[in-house]
Amino acid sequence: MAQLIGGGVWAKYQPQFPKDYQPGVAIVGCGKIVQLQHLPAYKKYGVKVVGVYDILPEAAEKVRSTFGIPKVYRSLNELLDDSGVEVVDIATHPDVRFPLVQQAIEAGKHVLVQKPLAMTVEEARRIIEMASQKGVKVAVNQNGRWAPPWRVATLLIEQGAIGEVFAITHLFETSFHWTIGTKFDEIRQWLLYDYAIHWIDISRCWMGSTPVEWVRAENYRLSLQPEESKTPWGAIVEIRWQGGKTALIRSVGGAQVTTRNHPFWIHGTEGTIRGSVMNREWIELEQNQTVTQFHLQGSWYPDGFGGTIGELFSSIVENREPFNSPSHNLLSLQLTLSACKSADLGGETVQLEL
Question: Which of the listed CATH numbers 3.30.450.20, 3.40.50.720, 3.30.565.10, 3.40.50.620 matches domain 15-140?
């Protein structure tokens, strides 16, 4: 049985933007993620990018000329002083991100901050506090929440299609050979902290408000990893919620496949959702011995990036917290940092990083 997702409530699986609101957006950081994902998504959805800034002027100039952006700012202060900038998209690496977010909030700008939200839970709580004090909206660029299969799964779960979720399983069937020689290869616990955080975050969304009991994780080098590769490619993350509910993430980071695949399974008391994100994007629902396959439009890249900023815009217009607010994302960060701690302890179960 096949179903084409179209209008009505199902249109919500695609990025949503408010009508008659087109704020000026300035981007801080002009690396590959901005060039390959942010800006193509913004072009697709008509986001008005008024300028860019990078500590490397040549990087900012390259982005300006490639995408036809009106302005390159000479400094962060110049960007923040521009009254035409309402939203600041901060897309730098995490180790330099917090003071930039702090400055943008203090300048009264709404902020889209790249994931992970912060290096520590303390920094994340400070961002939440600062945004509240200044009366601005902050959203976390957990773009995977708007990957079409994951977004449809979220809507199905919210509608009670599979009853109560009790088990989530994710698999990384991919190769991380591409990380060699990149900045990512230099990030400690990269696979858990910077990559798997998307899968930890979406599992957190699907489990809702169920209290977490513990987190366990391991990461390890694979025998086939080249010597020059620094970050481990293999990992296992297990999260236990009250009532025996679990999420399991396994990374087969050296998979010999032509197309990377990230399948997932969500088991509930009244049905099952299964699908995949990245490259092969599909989803199906099994309930009452009937399987329904959904025909999706769009993909995680770049549409997920449209989803995060569209939700920020909507929250500004509607004067509410965005779904991807720092407050909602805090648990995802706590789970991720706890996974990193567990891996450091050789796979011991640990409590949430508070």
Answer: 3.40.50.720
